[in-house]
């Protein structure tokens, strides 16, 4: 506990009437690292962030930000952190520059500091060219970057980002990831919530997976993937004509082969590299040409499915929806 952790959650609970939105959530984020709070819609991510940023009071438990307790010293918590919420907080009718100026003056910064910091931020977030246009004319990606810039005016050491890339196109998403990596390199501690497994995989040092208000897994991306069980052996043959013969050989070696014809690919649950070597040898001198042979770790999607019994993208109350699409269900 304490000095090495920029953020700590300790048994956080939030009830809304009958709804138990967050149920005993604890974790700690070392200074200068990124924690990904990963979970589907309704998991309790926003509520957790709101408790940690003093916007809502925990029913039980507490949290500390930069060593300050949210219950006993909320003002110090607010001075130590920036927050970018799920909905944009910038003023549509002001320009990008005016938005930064407005926030800077609310924080009580003097004009010269605001000038310097504002110009720096506009450049860092590739908004210098659009600085004097009203925000109304910005693209989704530009708004998100301005949002982030605004939350950095007071240069907080800890930053909370609630689904920072939801609704962004893939290119803007990758651009924002780069900006976030730069921030972390400069020493900022980040807590970001996301529904995207790939995003957590890309950015987070540690991941806390929550579902229905409860922490269901915790670890580095690699640990979570390892814990979710078997790797898969993947063989891709060069010629479609060879596929059947290749399947026969994989099965002959005692593995359970699954075939994807269009991709000329065979996958089989495997124990590790020894299986890869074994399978490689059964193709020796067979005349079957192999494009690719390797071991694939489970994706975070597999991890999530394994832990929760449902895919992260599934809408919870879509009975018989996404999960069964394109599939005939027979009793
Ligand atoms: N102000 C509120 N009043 C009542 N229920 C709420 C409130 N805020 C959130 N909830 C409920 O708490 C649960 C968690 O919501 P939320 O924290 O927004 O999840 P997430 O951000 O992971 O999508 C949901 O069931 C949601 O309906
Ligand atoms: Mg949310």
TrEMBL record:
Q: Recorded GO terms, molecular function?
A: ATP binding; ATP hydrolysis activity
Q: Which Pfam families match?
A: ABC_tran
Q: Which PROSITE patterns match?
A: ABC_TRANSPORTER_1, ABC_TRANSPORTER_2
Q: Which UniProt keywords apply?
A: Antibiotic resistance, ATP-binding, Cell membrane, Membrane, Nucleotide-binding, Translocase, Transport
Q: Ranges for the ABC transporter domain?
A: 7-237
Record protein name field: ABC-2 type transport system ATP-binding protein
Q: What is the superkingdom listed in this entry's lineage?
A: Bacteria
NCBIfam families linked: drrA
The opening ranks of the lineage are: Bacteria, Bacillati, Actinomycetota, Actinomycetes, Propionibacteriales
Is Cell membrane a UniProt keyword of this protein? yes
The record's similarity note reads: Belongs to the ABC transporter superfamily. Drug exporter-1 (DrugE1) (TC 3.A.1.105) family.
């Amino acid at each position: 506990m304490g000095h090495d952790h920029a953020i700590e959650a300790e048994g956080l609970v939030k009830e809304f009437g009958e709804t138990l939105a967050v149920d005993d959530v604890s974790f700690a984020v070392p200074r200068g690292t990124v924690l990904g709070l990963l979970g589907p819609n309704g998991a309790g991510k926003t509520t957790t962030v709101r408790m940690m940023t003093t916007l809502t009071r925990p029913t039980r438990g507490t949290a500390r930000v930069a060593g300050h307790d949210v219950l006993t010293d909320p003002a110090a918590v607010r001075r130590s952190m920036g927050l970018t919420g799920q909905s944009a907080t910038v003023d549509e009718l002001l320009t990008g520059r005016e938005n930064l100026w407005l926030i800077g003056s609310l924080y009580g910064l003097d004009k010269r500091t605001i000038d310097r910091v504002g110009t720096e931020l506009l450049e860092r977030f590739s908004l210098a060219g659009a600085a004097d246009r009203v925000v109304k004319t910005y693209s989704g990606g530009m708004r998100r970057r301005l949002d982030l810039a605004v939350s950095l005016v007071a240069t907080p050491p800890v930053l909370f980002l609630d689904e920072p890339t939801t609704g962004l196109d893939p290119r803007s998403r990758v651009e924002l990831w780069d900006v976030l990596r730069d921030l972390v390199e400069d020493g900022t501690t980040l807590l970001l919530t996301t529904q995207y497994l790939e995003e957590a995989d890309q950015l987070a040092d540690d991941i806390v997976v929550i579902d229905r208000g409860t922490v269901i897994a915790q670890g580095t991306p690699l640990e979570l993937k390892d814990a979710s069980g078997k790797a898969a052996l993947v063989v891709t043959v060069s010629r479609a004509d060879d596929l059947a013969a290749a399947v026969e050989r994989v099965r002959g070696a005692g593995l359970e082969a699954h075939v994807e014809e269009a991709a000329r690919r065979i996958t089989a649950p495997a124990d590790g590299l020894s299986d890869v070597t074994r399978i490689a040898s059964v193709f020796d001198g067979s005349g079957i040409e192999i494009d690719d042979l390797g071991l694939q770790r489970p994706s975070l999607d597999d991890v999530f499915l394994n832990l929760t019994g449902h895919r992260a993208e599934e809408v919870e109350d879509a009975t018989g929806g996404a999960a069964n699409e394109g599939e005939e269900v027979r009793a």
